[in-house]
Design goal:
The protein is of the alpha/beta class and 435 residues long. It contains 18 helices and 16 strands. Helix content is 36%, strand content 22%. The structure holds N-(iminomethyl)-L-glutamic acid and fe (iii) ion.
């Protein structure tokens, strides 16, 4: 859904291009390189970035001089422009919050005890099975719009609350329907292996068989997802189950990724054979797996919103992973049980204060490395000619303010594949606006 009219952003105080010469995901010191242009300008047309440079140079360009009246000009009032966030881990296909779980946890119950007692993921399943595709699509679209309001332009969206063939397909169709109505980019993931559904208790192998032999082939046949995900952790699926599911996904041409090491240590090396795009959570990653991970392009996607919301004292070991060369990304893990947030700026703030990532590292991991975690880095995650016109404009003077003003929304407007989406709340407070 590209905006046909060319867009010209001028007077950008700090333009974070995130451009670099490194091919794969960013590691170690590369995460600090934001490719900043001061007093920058960007020209976009047909949903793509055409040129990037300084406002002074752009205004001297003969083509721009001649065509200035024909293009939409956005005066960025010396504020910050960066690539739109790539939220590479979300679970938006659900209906309603889990407020009982929230209260039980505040009273001292753990996430797992709540799940074992009939709450948790399984308690979101009933509503999803009962819902129509249109109701689910409405929920997904509402989440996508709220994400765009906080600077996100690309979203990975998982199914995983249907837990049978019909409802997982319905969830993925709802994600697809919502993505048609949203100007940003959605990458769908089948998470049929989120948890073993109630009716398969005690015979999880039968459910794994359903996922491998029916769900994945049908998802692939209908082209409903790019990736298959597995919750490969305590309370979820074993490494052997995960290998079977990855085998089936690979056979059917789908990429793989997995939730690992959130609650317990997991053996990762057998799964690396399948070249997963990402391992997510990683709280309890084993020290001996780190050198292996540093040699692979599998991105460690850290989701500190879950640690925050579950009230955990420990956060994912970002410093160890970054300092030892593992490519890291940040994402919201938006879901009703462990991370009901749509805000990437809040996740960046958590990364800085709780995981000791620098603001620059937080931005790089939430943009270009998020794009790598979705295998989209040729189109997303940096502001370079030829890439998709996905931009976030923040009304701050310094990029470090994005994680600094926590729980505030400083995003003024977002450009998604060339289409401008104005954050109306910010506009009321005098944020820069399209001319
Ligand atoms: O990534 N436990 C795994 N999946 C989600 C939580 C889903 C839920 O509780 O609804 C996670 O944290
Ligand atoms: Fe998750």
């Amino acid at each position: 859904m590209a905006d046909e009219k060319a867009l010209f952003l001028v007077n950008i105080g700090q333009l974070l291009t995130l451009r670099s010469s490194s091919a794969g995901p960013r590691r170690g010191p590369e995460l600090k390189q934001l490719g900043m242009v001061k007093e920058g300008a960007i020209l976009c047309a047909g949903g793509k970035i055409v040129s990037v440079g300084t406002t002074k140079d752009a205004l001297r360009d003969p083509w721009l001089k001649k065509n200035r009246k024909k293009i939409t000009e956005l005066d960025c009032s010396n504020h910050v422009v960066m690539p739109g966030f790539v939220d590479s881990h979300t679970h938006p296909a659900f209906l309603g919050p889990r407020l009982g779980d929230f209260e039980r946890r505040i009273a001292g119950a753990s996430y797992q005890a709540i799940g074992d007692g009939g709450g948790g993921i399984r308690s979101s399943v009933h509503a999803v099975r009962e819902a129509t595709k249109a109701e689910l699509a409405g929920q997904v679209l509402s989440a996508l719009n709220q994400m765009a309001g906080q600077g996100t332009t690309t979203v990975e969206a998982k199914s995983g609350y249907g837990l049978n063939l019909e409802s997982e397909l319905k969830s993925l169709e709802a994600i697809r329907q919502a993505s048609f109505e949203w100007p940003g980019t959605v990458i769908a993931t089948c998470l049929g292996a989120h948890v073993v559904p109630q009716e398969y208790q005690g015979r999880s192998h039968k459910y794994v068989e359903l996922v491998c032999k029916k769900m994945i082939p049908e998802v692939a046949r209908r082209n409903l997802a790019v990736f298959v995900d597995v919750f490969a952790d305590r309370g979820g699926f074993t490494t052997e189950d995960t290998e079977k599911i990855f085998e089936s996904a690979t056979k059917h041409g789908l990429g793989v990724r997995a939730h690992v090491c959130q609650f317990a240590e997991c053996v990762l090396w057998p799964l690396l054979e399948y070249h997963p795009a990402s391992f997510d959570h990683m709280d309890h990653v084993m020290a001996e797996d780190i050198p292996q991970l540093a040699k692979h392009d599998t991105v460690a996607t850290l989701v500190p919103g879950a640690n925050y919301f579950l009230g955990l004292e420990e956060f994912p070991p970002a410093r160890t992973l970054i300092d030892r060369g593992v490519p890291v990304a940040l994402a919201t893990d938006y879901n009703p049980g462990s991370s009901p947030t749509l805000s990437m700026p809040f996740i960046l703030s958590l990364a800085c204060t709780q995981m000791k990532m620098s603001p620059a590292e937080a931005i790089a991991t939430a943009t270009i490395n998020g794009a790598h975690a979705l295998r989209l880095a040729d189109r997303k995650g940096s502001i370079e000619p030829g890439k998709d016109a996905d931009l976030a404009i923040f009304d701050v003077d310094d990029f470090r303010e994005i994680p600094y003003w926590f729980a505030a929304n400083r995003c003024a407007f977002t450009i998604l594949n060339g289409a401008v989406s104005v954050n109306t709340y910010r506009m009321a407070f005098g944020a820069p606006r399209p001319a």
